Amino acid sequence: MLSLGPLVLLFAVGEPERVTQTTEAPTPEDAPAAGGARTRRTRRTARVHRAWFVAAVTFVTIIGAAAFRSLPALLIDPLHQEFHWSRGTIGAAVSVNLALYGVTSPFAAALMDRFGIRKVVAVALSVIALGSGLTVWMTAAWQLLLCWGLLVGLGTGSMALAFAATVTNRWFTERRGLVTGVLTAASASGQLIFLPVLSWLVERHGWRPAAVTVALAALAVVPFVWLLLRDHPADVGLKPYGAQEFAAKPPPVRGAARRTVAVLFSSARTGTFWLLAGTFAICGASTNGLVQTHFVPAAHDHGMPITAAASLLAVVGVFDVVGTIASGWFTDRFQARRLLAAYYALRGISLLFLPVLLGPSVHPTMLFFIVFYGLDWVATVPPTLSLCREHFGQDSAIVFGWVLASHQVGAAVVAYLGGVARDTFGSYDVVWYAAGALCAAAALMALVIRRPARAVAPA
């Protein structure tokens, strides 16, 4: 599965990267018997456009980042048992992580415009490695908040989906929906790879080796990013994929923080922004905040082994890859707001059935839920990003960063409240039902989004 995304990216194209023509002076052998016209020799270099290789590098980088997001769900029970911290306390650290993941994203998009993609991502990976590595020596809850909440939250926020949006906007003018779907699916591919490994480490050797593994994975990706990733097509003398004209690399945009805040205030004056932010907040609440954080401990409450529950989440990752790539393909062909409404409605229905499906063993109906939920997991990203592009143009990457911030705030609130609900009621049932109702509301909100007004050309 690791190679699925790059293969889709590299073989979904059939256009050459460049065609070069050379004109040579005629020689006696070249000259025809009559006329004396010059002969032009054409040499064609048929190669895959460089944009697809950049997208493949981005895909692999996001896969590495998925390791950092896979671990919190596996830490709740081990930290509770070792340090006797309440699940609400541990959930608070996860909440800080998720919130910073979202809030940092729009600023990271602006920083990429200022300093370049490679520098921002390399620094982010180093911060993640530092935060994850330091957790090995923690002894107090505030240290968990500092290391996993603050440091890892800032690092992962700089590699959030705004990273994928920036790469897509710079390198592609065609097939953006497909590329967005593949890059979004990279996170699920990473979950597929790392969840079984990390759960095995936690169960057999404790949580510390798992934290060290995450730190080493972050460091391993740094040279890969630095050597292979490129900031802009102009850096290698190319047009963006599908563009008709060459685009010069824009100068660094100074005042990244000021621009980010200005874009927020500008977009916040529109109803579309608030509808996108609201639906995406519910998306985060029902995925990262609830299922990714609390599914493993909830299944363990019903007698299911941790490794089995983590493997089910990994299966979610398998079908998330399929669902997200398919969603990108659909987004290129159908109205994005209608796709969003369908995705949220189906997700809400599935969550309402989950409390009666949980049990000590894996059975067919549970597998059906996992497959169904996996197909819908982040299928919402391509249509949401498409709506940002339609309504906000050149600022769409930063606007999407703010929309993603709402996604993570929703995730953070439910990550915390889910732990509190478990401590209070002794089960997660009330949280599953509440999330299902929220998804129904998100479906209605998506349908309210209007199509952007098109400018009328002067007569």
From TrEMBL:
Start and end residues of each Major facilitator superfamily (MFS) profile domain: 53-454
**Region feature (Disordered):** 19-42
What Gene Ontology cellular component terms go with this record?
Answer: plasma membrane
Q: Which residues form the signal peptide?
A: none
Membrane topology designation: Multi-pass membrane protein
Known CDD domains for this protein?
A: MFS_YcxA_like
Q: Where is the composition biased (Low complexity)?
A: 22-37
Residues passing through the membrane, by range? 48-68, 88-108, 120-142, 148-166, 178-201, 207-229, 273-291, 303-330, 342-360, 366-385, 397-418, 430-449
Q: Which GO terms describe its molecular function?
A: transmembrane transporter activity
What domain of life does the UniProt record list for this protein's source? Bacteria
- What keywords would UniProt list here? Membrane, Transmembrane, Transmembrane helix
User: What PANTHER family does the record tag this protein with?
Assistant: EG:103B4.3 PROTEIN-RELATED, MONOCARBOXYLATE TRANSPORTER
Protein known as: MFS transporter
This protein's species is Streptomyces sulfonofaciens
